[in-house]
């Protein structure tokens, strides 16, 4: 596969094995809360109401971040 993509095998495995960043870990945690809020709404809430639910829980995040996470995980929700 690495030959077909014209990349070094060592570079590929370095990329695969690198640890997740703080931002990625926080996004995963937020995505769990977003999914819970969305399911509790009967799968009808958009990013604005989900953001409001998160703020009610004491989570500090912008509506833009919530919208981005929903857009990136659309097929999971």
TrEMBL record:
- Domain HTH-like residue range list: 27-73
What superkingdom heads the lineage?
A: Bacteria
Listed name of the protein:
Transposase
List the source organism: Alteromonas naphthalenivorans
